[in-house]
Each structure stands twice: as structure tokens, then as C-alpha cells.
Amino acid sequence: MNAILLLIILLLLSLLFVGGKQGLMTFFGLFLNCIPIFILITLVNWGFTPLVVLPIMAILILSVAIYLSAGRPRVLQITWQSSVIVLVLILILAFLAQHFGHLQGYTLENSDELEGLSLSVGIDFSNLAIIVMVMSALGAIAEAAMAVTADLFEVVERTPNISAANLQAQGKVIGEQILGTAINTLFFGMLGANIPLLVWFFRLHYSFSEFMNGKLLIFEVVTMLLGMIGILCSITIAIFLVEHAFHREGRGILNESDL
Amino acid sequence: MKQNWQKILFVIVITALGYFLGRFDSVLYQQPVGQVTAVKTLSSESTTDEHGNQDESVDQQLRVKLLNRKDKEKVIKNSYLSSQAETIRYQKGDQILLTKSDDGYQIDMAKRDNVLFALLGLLFAGLYLAMSRRKFSFLALSIVVNAGLFLATILWDATSRSLPVLPVFVVLALLLSALALYFVLGWGLQAWITWLATCLATLLAVLAMAAVIAVTGAKGIHFETMSYVTQIPQPVFYAQALIGVLGAVMDESGDIVAGLFGLKRESSERTFADYWQAGRSIGREILGTLTNVLFMIFIAETVPMVILMLRNGNNWSYILDQTMNLGILQTVVSALGIVWAVPVTAFITATLLTKKGAINS
């Protein structure tokens, strides 16, 4: 039996056991998210302007990721709002990073993979680099906003007499801790993914300036930094939105009937 | 409001400082650095490859001012394809690292440290404002120490030919997670619980992968598609999966434990069932999005290669096998770790928080 298929079945069963029906939705969401990604790739391949297709598909991906996860409607709503605001910011930053850094495409280190492939394919790879940077950040943006919003709602629910000032203090504590752990997620993800490349750099005695300027490594690091900046903005904006909602509606934010 | 503008201004100033640091650090470089002062297109020619893709091949002449050499100005030729897959179209103002040979200067690579420094500046300025000074220094320290430890291990792995890769990276994973949690959470029960749950869930996920690979004889897994291979791929893949999933599981456990300690701070009179339920509820809410974090990172990275292969007339099933196989495997293993972290963390935390007299802090 195919090893990956077996692991996927194991994952499905675990999700059912841990998350019940909601767990199933998570699984479904991963598959559903392949659709906008597939459409994005196909449209870009057909020659559509990537910088128009990307924001639309990014919002779709965010919506699927957020609205298919389990949670209160209001938590999801606030998560979605902060994520879309942050998406715009990351789009701009990714564009600037690409413009100043020429981060697109491949180098000599990729010769093996590129063997037999024509590189004059008529699609601007600088736009593809922007796609990679923005899409990599999407998950992290949604996750951070979701975590901080869910935690704050949990606190409001479990503490009947919470005041706005108390909530603000809790927001800072929770935000700080989530910031720390969420940044570590991307950090370790990047470290893990780049073990072979770094070993390569060390084995071939690359110079310090190649570590600081080499396209492949800098692209990975820039992608990670954009993700971290996304997390930071996401948390800041989500806390602001929750406090704003609590300020207006008090514990009424827990009511789900208004949606 | 005025305070918010000051904060935004602070972030912009630090970002700009980072950028200019990268623009003016060429004196520190041993190799020649130049800045493009004028660009002239010499010739351009349409090309069509064997798959019918239209592209454009361009020769440009760059006037380059040398920034750290006595020679003042040089004229350098650069040719690129409009698609820029392996070549670069330079613009006025770009800085370039050069190499000198007998017949003049050649382009080595674009200078990118200005982007690196600017984004680092942006991130750290933002973190500085968002966190208390103490937490900020600890997070920064955590990243620096962990990166140093990681690079040292990689260097060790790269220089020694017979390193037992997997055991070394298991120890590294234990160390990195302990350090990261210590720096973020401080020394205390919260950090210990999170660390314990993280290691347990990660271990379970990687063991599950090892078991499945053993049972199926690694059928359907293409270890040979790994990029930049300089050693036997399989142990390296395990190391990658281990370190990669560690952060995500730590995030999940960290969020659950933080949430439950938040409840504890609000009111300490709660039962095991309260914590267990709240923990699973927090976990369930973020489990989907967290899996998505790793899924999006992996799938985003494959996009350029998928498009390149599509344009080269390959079919989808071949492309999926070549570009996504290991990524999917790693995403599934990470997802397993993230899912199992929920009951593991909720159980450990609920047990310890309700144990009489265990916590007073």
C-alpha cells in the first residue's frame, strides 16, 4: 500500500477522533484549499496577470481556511477581517522585496532539477516569487489571528464579570505568548526545510557574502520574515478588533444569534 | 492616536535604517561591489522554445559605479530572458556583487542584504513595540541562540562525513524546543508542560511516519526528488520533518497551555473537566488553521516549479510526483503531530493544573 495514502487515512481517523465533525471539516478544508491554488496555477499558466489573480485567490484561500475551521462565527469573522487587512500589507511588502531584491527563479544550484527543462517559458518569474511569498504567509496570518481571537473569547466566556481594562491586559499577555510561539513555528519550519541547502552551502565553503546575498537562501529567509511580519500585524489588528467589539457590545459579542 | 503615528513612524525609520545599512555596507565586502548608474538595451530578440513558449532575449549594457574599488566606472554587459527564471533584468540603482577576471568585471549576483536588513528592521521594530521589553529581548535572544545552535549543528554535519544524522537532530530538536520555550515562557510549569507535550506529540508523529514507512517499504515515496542532496536523503528527510513539525506542535501546545493558564489567572476554582474541555476547544479552533500554515508554506514553494514544468509540456500526475511528493508527506506528518498535540496537551495540562497544591505562581 502507498505509504502516503496510509498516513493520510491515519490523519483522517485522528482528526475524527480529536475534532469529531469539526475535525472532518479541517480535512475537507485542506482539500478544498487545493482548488483555488490549482486555479491560480492554471490561470497564471494561461497567461493571466498574476498580480490580479493572486489577491483574489488569496482571499479565497483565507476564507476557506478560516470559515471551515471550527469556532464561533464571531471569532471567525474577526479573524477574517484582520487577515484580509494583513494580506494587503504583505502583498505590498512582497512586491517591494521582490523589486529591490530580485529574488525570483533559480541559480546554478538547481541545475539537477532543471536538467532538460526550457527556461524561456515566457512567464515572468518575478511575479511567481511574489506569489510564493504571499501564499506562504497566508496560513500563518490566519492562524495567528485565529489563536488570539479564540483565546480572548474563551477568557470573556469563562469570566462573567470581565472589564474592558482586564480584557486589554489579558490581550497583551496572550498576544505576547502567541507571538512568541507563532514566530517559532515559521522559524523552525524554515530551518527544517533548509537543512539540505545549508549543508550544501557549508560543504562547498560558500563565502559569508554568499550567505548574505545568495538568491535561494535569502528568498527563504525573506519569505519567513514576511510571514513573521504578517503574524505580528495579524495579532495586533485582531486584538484591536476584539477590544473594539467588546467596547461596543460588551459580553454581547458571545451571542451568536446576530449572525 | 498621536501615539499610534509615532509608533508607525518609529517602524518606518528603523526599516529605512536597515535598508540604508545594506546600501552603504559595500566597504565591508572583499569582492567588488558596483551600483548601476545607467542602463542601455543593446538588442532584444523574440525566442520560441520547443514547446512553443514565446519569450524575449535581451542584451543590456550596464554602466556600473564601483563602490569599493579604485576603478571608478565600468561598463558591463548583461543578458537576460524576459521571464527571468535564471537571469536578472537590472535597473538603475541596483547594487551588484562583481567578480574580477583578466578581461574585466563580471556580474556575480545581485546584492540583496539591503532587503534582508530592511525586513529584519521592520520585524524587530514591530516586535519591540508590540511586546514588553523583557519578552522582546527574550524572543530575540531565542531566535539568535537557536539559529546559532542550528547552524553549528549543520556545520558539524557538513564537515564530518560519518555523523549519525538522525540521533544528532533528535537531540537538537529537544534542545531547540526547550530553549525556545524557556525564552518565550520563562522557567516554570507552563514551559515544562508545553515542552513535554511538544516532544511527546512530535515523537508520536515521527514514529508513526517511521512505522508506516517500515510497513509499506516506503512505497510511493520518492526520496530521490529531494533538492540539494549531498548525503543519503532518508535520514535528512527525517531530520527535516522533525525540526519542521517541532515549531508547529510547539505553537499548538503553547496556545492551549497559554489559554488554560489564562483561565487559571482569571479564576482558580476550576475542575479537570473544565480545563480538558477548554483545552480541546482551543485546540480544535486552531488545529485547522495551523495545519494550513505548513500546508500553504509547502504548496507555495512548489508553484514556480509546477508552472515551469507545465510550460514544458509535462502532465499533472508526473508534476505532482516530482515536485509535491515529499512536501505532501511532510505536511501529513506535521498535521498528525498537530492533531495529536491537542489531547496530549489538554490532558497533561488539565491533570497538572487540578493537582492539589501543584501551582501557586
UniProtKB/TrEMBL annotation, chain B:
<keyword id="KW-0812">Transmembrane</keyword>
<protein>
    <submittedName>
        <fullName>Uncharacterized membrane protein</fullName>
    </submittedName>
</protein>
<feature type="transmembrane region" description="Helical">
    <location>
        <begin position="328"/>
        <end position="353"/>
    </location>
</feature>
<feature type="transmembrane region" description="Helical">
    <location>
        <begin position="138"/>
        <end position="156"/>
    </location>
</feature>
<feature type="transmembrane region" description="Helical">
    <location>
        <begin position="286"/>
        <end position="308"/>
    </location>
</feature>
<keyword id="KW-1133">Transmembrane helix</keyword>
<dbReference type="InterPro" id="IPR012507">
    <property type="entry name" value="YibE_F"/>
</dbReference>
<keyword id="KW-0472">Membrane</keyword>
<feature type="transmembrane region" description="Helical">
    <location>
        <begin position="192"/>
        <end position="217"/>
    </location>
</feature>
<feature type="transmembrane region" description="Helical">
    <location>
        <begin position="115"/>
        <end position="131"/>
    </location>
</feature>
<feature type="transmembrane region" description="Helical">
    <location>
        <begin position="162"/>
        <end position="185"/>
    </location>
</feature>
<dbReference type="Pfam" id="PF07907">
    <property type="entry name" value="YibE_F"/>
</dbReference>
